[in-house]
Design brief:
disordered N terminus, alpha+beta, four-stranded antiparallel sheet, 385 residues, globular, single chain
């Protein structure tokens, strides 16, 4: 019954997400019609209108839509940054698509990083907790606030510039992009892949375990930006939440981090046992984290007994989909490398994957993660020998 309820919830949230995209599509259709009618009106009063001019218009508007989405994404992440600073947070990293600016030794370095289900991310170091609490609402909803404000501003500009044709149309597209982004991030949604800002805010509110988890996640990010490996961070941060607390989406992340730490400490038997338990219970773990845990379980099996029947149960269609979609993520590349080396026994394919891994490592923001993954790959190489 619980799984059915969760699936219904995810389906409903996906419907909302699709509805937002339809809304943006309607706006695009309106602007296309708006500009086309404007061109036809020009023809009606005797001005020369060519077919190429009409085609350029129909190309111009979708391009403006893409630009507006990128612009609103930047505004959204900037909103997290501004309201985070106002709430006492400090910048750790700022990412738009795969471009990531990381604070390293008081300097900003440009790196490459992408995460499935996200188009941007502003990570900050939180202030110290006071009586088990930190300010979190403005930081989490800062991006939504900025998108709404910009949507209103662009909508007003659309009406003010009504007689300026293309300029007015551009303002309308930017306005709708802002409102749609605000809806998609503000309405609490967990589509099964990632949780949005509204969902995270609701998860934290009134839940001590979730509040602690949120604070620790931000502190872990701060430590990562300083080059510290997860195994070298304070052990008390990685206490596994109770099964009841694991039902909360925000709190459940600490269960995932606890598994990550055991893997980094090379405590594979304990890690596999914990991962098996976490994957079995009813929890709020998002699909991305679930599939990455399965990648780690597959690794433990491959360097251990390496049983095909067990691997087939771990490496599901969803996991292989993750591997295909996250070709630039070190954990995924390590899993694919070890699979090629120990299961397929294809050394040429494994070597190709390793070369790709090293290429990505050059621009990866967290060199200590690369170091950890290299250690895990070296263990598999010893196993193959």
């Amino acid at each position: 019954m619980k799984n059915k309820t969760k699936k219904k919830s995810i389906s409903w949230q996906k419907f909302i997400s699709m509805a937002c995209m339809v809304l943006l599509g309607v706006a695009l259709g309106y602007v296309l019609g708006y500009t086309t009618v404007d061109i036809l009106d020009m023809a009606a009063v005797g001005e020369t209108v060519t077919g190429s001019g009409l085609i350029r218009t129909w190309i111009f508007v979708p391009v403006v839509l893409c630009v507006s989405i990128v612009f609103q994404t930047i505004l959204h992440e900037a909103g997290h940054l501004v309201f985070g600073l106002l709430s006492g947070y400090k910048l750790s990293s700022f990412r738009i698509f795969s471009l990531m600016w990381v604070k390293e030794n008081e300097k900003i370095a440009l790196k490459r990083y992408s995460l499935a289900g996200t188009v941007g991310q502003c990570l900050m170091s939180p202030p110290d907790m006071v009586n088990g609490k930190i300010p979190f609402v403005l930081f989490n909803l800062g991006g939504v606030i900025v998108n709404i404000v910009s949507g209103i501003v662009f909508l007003l500009l659309h009406f003010v510039l009504k007689g300026f044709g293309y300029v007015s149309a551009v303002m309308l597209v930017f306005s709708f992009a802002g409102f749609v982004m605000a809806l998609m991030n503000g309405l609490p949604m967990n589509t099964g892949t990632v949780s949005n800002d509204g969902y995270n805010t609701v998860s934290i509110k009134g839940n001590k375990a979730a509040m602690r988890s949120f604070w620790i996640q931000m502190k872990i990010t701060e430590q990562l930006s300083k080059g510290i490996r997860i195994k070298d961070m304070p052990a008390q941060w990685f206490a596994v939440p109770s099964d009841e607390d694991m039902k909360n989406g925000m709190a459940s992340v600490m269960g995932v981090f606890a598994c990550n730490r055991l893997i980094d400490e090379l405590r594979f038997t304990e890690a596999d046992k914990l991962m098996a338990h976490i994957l079995e219970i009813d929890s709020g773990i998002i699909a991305l984290h679930r599939n990455l845990l399965l990648c780690d379980r597959a690794y433990v099996e491959m360097i251990g007994e390496n049983r095909n029947e067990v691997l087939n149960g771990i490496l599901t269609k969803d996991v292989w989909k993750l591997i295909r979609n996250m070709k630039k993520f070190p954990t995924v590349l390590r899993t694919e490398y070890v699979y090629s080396l120990l299961v397929l026994k294809d050394s040429k394919k494994a070597e190709k994957i390793k070369r790709n891994f090293e290429k990505i490592a050059l621009k990866y923001p967290y060199p200590q993660d690369i170091e950890a993954e290299r250690e895990l790959m070296a263990i598999s190489e010893q196993k193959s020998v």
